[in-house]
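Instructor's aside before we start: the two examples that follow are unrelated to each other. I chose them only because their records fit on one page, so don't look for a connection. First example below.
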Amino acid sequence: MDYAKIWFVLWAVLWTAYFALDGFDLGVGFSGWLAADGADERGGVFSSVGPFWDGNEVWLITAGGATFAAFPPVYAALFSWLYPALFLLLFSLIARGVALEFRGKVASAPWKSFWERTAAVSSLLVALLLGVAFGNIFRGLQIGPDGYAGTFLGLLNPYALLTGALFCAFFFFHGQLWLSFKAPGRAADRAAALAGKGWYALASLFAAFVVYSWAGTGLSGNFLERRALLLLPLLAVLSLGAARLLLAGGRRRAAFLASFAAIATFSLTGFAGIYPALLPSAIDPAFSLTVYDSASSAYTLRLMTWVAVLLLPVVIACQLWVHRLFAVPLSAAELKKSGMY
């Protein structure tokens, strides 16, 4: 078995799972306040992601761990070449986690307001930085014969910023759809209306990303050689359209699932486009870090595959159980009694 190729697929799937799962609570974090009117509704908005957000971040840890174990040169390169950007991302993730946990610890309006603002800023930064990071990966980094030849400011190129804006728009739409059936009271209806308006910005950014990717990056190469891969971007477009139609028809939970599918297929499209590279070079493909020259030994990958086969179903089952347990939103009275407000 070609374990290196298997782990490229698993690497892509783990990152995709993180985007699709943590995407909705990142969206709630930076835009949920728009759907809330008053302190009680803001409490309901933040409580809607309370049982889920830290479980969703397990996928980020798993994706990072898989990068370290399966492709150690890639992990080393990222943390040596892009250390300032990754440090900023890590700091934003820490600030977001602290804000979500600390918000409900003190029954004080200024205290709650401070942590709500912290959650909003840090969640937006995480979404933007993830988009910029993967935009640069999809576009190709300035990797030359002596390693990374770019600068921190060079990462803020138009394509990466467009991808960052697209990630924010995806997570905004995803988060508002979550609130449209999870938030208490009238906040759910406001969230549905915001999701409907946000869809148009998302669709515009998505179209711009597709055109720019096709004309200005090397992502199209694999799709021209293997036409079956075109199914992925097609499914992304269809899922995005289905989310809008389902929302307009009042099927909010189904619209959320369609949004989940749109993020997943969009992410997989990007990973399919860069294969076999994990960190493509914009200077010369010969300098890219690929599956073939970055993978761990066959023994390590084989052992990791068995661990993944045994443990991933457990993680998925736990998350499904949590979603089933909290399938019905708590009432305002129940939330106040629980201290989650």
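Example two begins here.
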Amino acid sequence: MSFKAAAVQMCSGVDPVKNAAAMARLVREAAAQGATYVQTPEMTGMLQRDRAAARAVLADEAHDIIVKTGSELAREFGIHMHVGSTAIALADGKIANRGFLFGPDGRILNRYDKIHMFDVDLDNGESWRESAAYTAGSEARVLSLPFAEMGFAICYDVRFPALFRAQAMAGAEVMTVPAAFTKQTGEAHWEILLRARAIENGVFVIAAAQAGRHEDGRETFGHSMIIDPWGTVLASAGATGEAVIVAEIDPAAVKAAHDKIPNLRNGREFSVEKAAGAVAGGVAA
């Protein structure tokens, strides 16, 4: 059955209470447009580069305001509410970059902890070590919902196609990629990566993004997108500021794409051998 999906673009600051209020306002706008599945970006609750300041306001899952607000919004509008991720304090002192999917009754249907940590050094001098503060997840899941089979990823996970292929092979029809892509990497790769994951797996991709210059000084790329199994961008947002984008999702289009290009069925196991190249005076055997 088809459904209307929304991706909510935000510019989260350092105050979880203010971010929860912004999320609620935008989700209400999405619900007013008829969306029955609504996704928010990675780190909906807070973007804060100062780790000491971040830890001072972090809460565990049972007391987190974003989790509480997400549950309330799902119940208020009778929707599937997907908090793309928020920072959750763990008992061992570290943090989980955790996404939540709430059912229409407000219950948590799925948790997903970001698997791949963003540990990079960029050309513009930005350096990120997500693994220094966050505990990586280790479990992917495909969730059977009334309207589709859904797979989960967060931001940097999009650069690891094996995660998406495994979920597609498990039956995923919709892949979710909430993100806070940096401006530099977003300009180079954001749309290409999202469309590639959609095309190579024949699935819909829904990616709500952080956008603009944040209170902590970072700048994110924005351009939230909803993409169909043929790689067509059905809806997109701009580079900065809040936005709500909506598109109709028909899982039948997934089967149609798989029938045209049956690469999931045609894949074969193979081995990789590292062979010697040419050598002086001849060719290696």
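The longest strand covers residues 80-89.
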